[in-house]
Write a structure and sequence with these properties.
Layout lengths: L29 H13 L6 H12 L11 H20 L7 H13 L2 H4 L10
């Protein structure tokens, strides 16, 4: 006796479909693959090679990078900018103000005006 199927569809042979989109197979030089792998390891979430290639293509085409793809070099450059701003503010400080006032003024200046804090890309939006 033949087994019956409830929905009447015939089972297809082979591996099930994994996703949408066009599959592109290319050959890459070993140096390029090593550079892609090195870039992926620098990312916070260490994406697999295929995801790293997708992100690099998006960056190359000028599309915005994903929020989770903040590179360590971007973090280091923002830290360096904050440090340079702090040093400049220290040179211009008001000697007559109390140390507490000097610290609070410096913090306000480094954070930036309140109107611009919501549009900064390196910080999450505040409610």
């Amino acid at each position: 006796m033949k087994p019956t199927r409830k929905n009447g569809t015939k089972k297809r042979r082979g591996r099930p479909a994994t996703g949408q989109g066009v599959q592109i197979g290319t050959r890459w030089p070993e140096g390029t693959v090593a550079a892609i792998d090195a870039w992926a390891k620098e990312q916070r979430d260490e994406p697999p090679r295929s995801e790293a290639i997708r992100r690099l293509v998006e960056l190359g085409l000028g599309k915005s990078a994903r929020a989770s793809a903040v590179t360590p070099t971007a973090k280091a450059s923002s830290d360096r900018a904050r440090e340079m701003a702090g040093n400049t503010i220290d040179k211009l400080k008001d000697a007559k103000a109390s140390p507490d006032d000097q610290v609070s003024r410096k913090r306000r200046l480094v954070k930036g005006p309140e109107e611009f804090q919501n549009i900064r890309r390196d910080r999450p939006n505040r409610k």
